[in-house]
TrEMBL record:
InterPro entries, sorted: Man6P_isomerase-2_C (IPR001538), Mannose-6P_isomerase_type2 (IPR051161), RmlC-like_jellyroll (IPR014710), RmlC_Cupin_sf (IPR011051)
Origin: domain of life: Bacteria
Protein name: Mannose 6-phosphate isomerase
A Pfam family assignment: MannoseP_isomer
Coiled coil: none
Domain Mannose-6-phosphate isomerase type II C-terminal: 6-108
Lineage per the UniProt record: Bacteria, Pseudomonadati, Bacteroidota, Flavobacteriia, Flavobacteriales
Species for this entry: Psychroflexus torquis (strain ATCC 700755 / CIP 106069 / ACAM 623)
Length: 113
C-alpha cells in the first residue's frame, strides 16, 4: 500500500483510479496540514477517529467521528488535530487530476512550498 510520512503525520492511498483517489490520513495530536486549495479536485472528508478543527474558506468548525465535510473545488481548507489521540479521516478526492503537485499552499507550519 502506497503511503507517505509527513511532518504532521502520515497517509495511506487506499485506492487510485482515473476518476477518484481515496486516502486514510492520520494527524498527530496538535498537528495540522497546510492551508491550501486545489484547481483540479474537490474532496470529501469523513472523520473516523479523534477531534478535528477544519478551516474552510477562513471559517473554523470543530468535528468528531462520523462527521462528513465537503471541500469544493478551489476552496481554501485545512485540518488540525485538536484532541489527545491521533486524528484519522478518510479523504475521497474527485476530479480530473490527483497528483500532490495540485496543492497550492497558502500557509504552512513546516515551510513547504
Amino acid at each position: 500500500m502506497e503511503h507517505e510520512e509527513r511532518p504532521w503525520g502520515k497517509y495511506f492511498v487506499l485506492e487510485d483510479a482515473p476518476t477518484h483517489k481515496v486516502k486514510r490520513i492520520e494527524v498527530k495530536p496538535g498537528g495540522r496540514l497546510s492551508y491550501q486549495y486545489h484547481h483540479k479536485r474537490s474532496e470529501v472528508w469523513t472523520i473516523v477517529q479523534g477531534k478535528a478543527r477544519i478551516t474552510l474558506n477562513d471559517v473554523d468548525t470543530d468535528h468528531a467521528a462520523g462527521n462528513v465535510i465537503e471541500i469544493p473545488l478551489d476552496a481554501k481548507h485545512r485540518i488540525m488535530n485538536i484532541g489527545e489521540e491521533t486524528l484519522v479521516f478518510v479523504e475521497v478526492q474527485l476530479g480530473t487530476y490527483f497528483g500532490e503537485d495540485d496543492i497550492v499552499r497558502i500557509e504552512d507550519d513546516y515551510n513547504r512550498e
